[in-house]
Amino acid sequence: KMTQQMRDLQLAQARKPPGPSSPNAAKRLYRNLSGKFRVNYTSFDEGSLVGRGEKEKLRKSYLFQSNAALFEAVELQDLDRVQEMLKHYSPEELDLNTPNSEGLLPLDIAIMTNNAPIARALLQAGAKESPHFVSLESRSLHLSTLVREAEQRVNELMAQVVNEAPSADCSEKEKQLKAWEWRFRLYKRMKAGFEHARVPDAPSSVHLSVASSSSLQVTFWEPLSVNSAVVTKYKVEWSCSPTFSPLLGEAVIDKLKDLCFTIQGLVSGTAYHIRVSAYNMKGWGPPQASMPPFAIPSNWREYDGRAPRRRGQAEALDHLLGQVKTVHQHCICHEPCKNQPQSRKHSVSKSLKHLFHPGSKFLKTLKRGLYLTAIFYKDDNILVTHEDQIPVVEIDDTYSCLLMQDFLWLTKVSCMWDEILWLRQCVTVSQSSCSCILQTRFKMLLAISQMQGLLGIQDLGQVFFEPIKDKQGNILIVTLKEVKTNQTFESVRWVPICKLQTSRKSVSSPEEPTALDMLLISVQDKLAYHQRSSHALSAGLYLGYLKLCSAVDQIRVLVPEQLPNILCHVKIRSNPNISREEWEWLQKMASMEEPVPTEPEADRAQNPLFQELQVAIKELMTLVNIPLQEAKDFRLYSQEVLDFGDQVSFLLLLPPSDDVCTAPGQNNPYTPRSGFLTLPLQIFELGEER
C-alpha cells in the first residue's frame, strides 16, 4: 500500500489542517497499485463538502493520509518522522493498531526489519503486533506470499514496459514498476529478518522486592541480546516452588514504558519464587530467576502487630468537634445564628464588588498596629482593590507586640475558615473572663470575618509562616491563596505583580520600609513558598534528617526551601514499603547500638536495604553540610516508619541526643548550605497535614 512515490508526501500532510491539502494525490497513488492494495476510498468534490456526512468523509480521508504517512515513515526507517507523528497524534488518530491490506501493522514492519528504535517508540505509544500471526508458520507463510506476489507483479509490469511503445500510459507503468520493485525489496528484507532472528535471551536482571503484606514488586531489564528481533512483551510467573511446579500465576506485560510489575493478592508470610521471560516474533526466550530468588509479602507493622498511628484520628476529631457544636448550639450566644442564612446571602450578593466600592473598609496605610492581608494570585497576577491596593484590614490598632502563641493559634484557625462565625460567637461568651489573650483572638476572628465579607470569599488560604514587622510598630499577618480556576468574578481587578511593585508610591524610606512595602518587595518569594509548600513527593522510601532549634517562645525545624512541608531528605528507593525482615534487621542494629552504616561491610553486602542506606546517608550528609565521619554518632529512629499515605514513607536520621535541638546561644558548627530555612514546628505540622 505504501510506495516509494510517497516520499514526496510531507509530514505536514499528516498534521491537523482544516482539511487534507490533496486527498486526490493519495487516491491516485493507491489506485495505481494492483488489487492487493485495495482501499475503500470514496471520491468526492472538495468544494461541495457541506453537512455532517461530508465532514465525516473529510475526517476519514485525513485519518487515511495520517495512517499512510505513518506506514511510509516506518518503511523508510525515518525515526524522527515517526516520533514527531506519535507526539502530535493519538493512536486512534493514526489508526496505530489497524492492519493494512497486507495484514501488517506498523510494529510488524519495524520488528521484521529489526529497527529497534522505531519499534520501541511504537511500543511505548501502545502499538501491537498483528493478531493474524498466530504461529511462526503463519508468519513465515504470510511473508513468503507477500514476496511471491510482489515478485510476480514486478515481472508483469517489467514485461509490459519492455513490450509497449513509449507513451503516457507506459510512463505510468514505469512508475508502478519502480514502486513494486521497492516493495519487493522491502518484503524480502522483512522475510530475511524473520528467518535470521532467534528467540531473545533472558532479561539481563530481575529484581524482587516486597511491596506490601499482600503484594510483591518485580522490576526487570532488557536482555543483553535480543538476537536480531525486538522484544515486544514480557511474562512474569510466580510459584511457591523453586521448580515452578505448580505455577500459581502469570502475567504478560505488553506496555513497555516501565519494565515493572506488581503482583497483587498474595498471602502474607508465604514465600514466592519469581521468574521473567522475554518474547519476540520468534517466541518466548528462557526465563530469568529473580534476585533474591524469593520474597515474602509483609509489612514492618507485622513485627509487633502495631496498628497505624493515625488510624481513626481524623474521624475522632470530627466527632469531637461535632459534640462541641452540639453543646453550644442552644447557647444564648448562638441566637443570632437563626438569621445567619439571610446575612450570608447579603454578604455573598455584595461579593467582590466591595473591592471597588468607595466605602470599603480596606486600608491603604498602616498606623502602628496588628493587621491582616489576603493575597490571591493567579499565574503572575494578583488581586487588588479598586485603589490598586492589596486587601488589608485592621485587627487591633493598640496591639504593638504579637505573641507567638496568638499567631500559631491563628494558623490553626486557617484550617476551618468556614467556621469563623461559630468560633467568634463562642469566644464572645468566653470574654467574660476579660482575658487579654481571648480579646486579641476575638479581634482576629472579627478581622477574618470582615475580610471574608468584603471579598465574598470564605477560604482565605494558607497563613505565611511568619508575620511581617517594621520599625514603625506595624505587624502584618499574610494569607496566601492560588486561584486555579478559570472562573471570572464580577468587577475583579487582576494586576500583574511587577506592575503593582513599580507603580506603588512608597511613603517610607528605603532604610525603614513599612510592612506593606516589605510585603510588595518580597511578595514573589512568598508566592514561591506557597506553591512549593503544596508539592508532593513521588512514591518511595525516603531518609529524613530531623534537626530542631529552640528559641524563647518556639521550636523551629530545618526544612528545604524547595519543599518546605517536608523534612530535609533524600530518596532511598522507589518502593515505599519496609518489609518485616528489613524492620527486624533495623531493630537488631538499634538494640546493639551500632552506628549508622556509612562504610561497606562484607558480611552485609547481600542486604539490599543496608546498601541503599549507605548511599542515602552519604548523600544526605553532603546535602546538610555535615562531615561523613560525624554521621557515625547519628542514629536511625527505630520506633516506627513514618507513613504518609500508601505511597510515601520515611526513615528518620537523628543527630546525637544532645544535638537534636540546638538551644539559644548554642554554637552549631555545621551550618547547612543555602537552600534551607527553619519553620515554627506548629507551622511545619500544619503544612505536613495539608
TrEMBL record:
| InterPro entries named among the record's database cross-references | ANKFN1, Ankyrin_rpt-contain_sf, FN3_dom, FN3_sf, Ig-like_fold
Q: Where does the Fibronectin type-III domain start and stop, copy by copy?
A: 202-299
GO CC terms of this entry: spindle
Region named Disordered: 1-25
Which one GO biological process term can you cite for this protein?
establishment of mitotic spindle orientation
Q: Which domain of life is it from?
A: Eukaryota
Xref: SUPFAM superfamilies: Ankyrin repeat (SSF48403), Fibronectin type III (SSF49265)
**Entry-linked CDD domains:** FN3
* Xref: Pfam families: fn3
Q: PANTHER family from the entry?
A: ANKYRIN REPEAT AND FIBRONECTIN TYPE-III DOMAIN-CONTAINING PROTEIN 1-LIKE (PTHR21437:SF2), WIDE AWAKE (PTHR21437)
Q: What's the name of the protein?
A: ANKF1 protein
Q: Which organism is it from?
A: Panurus biarmicus
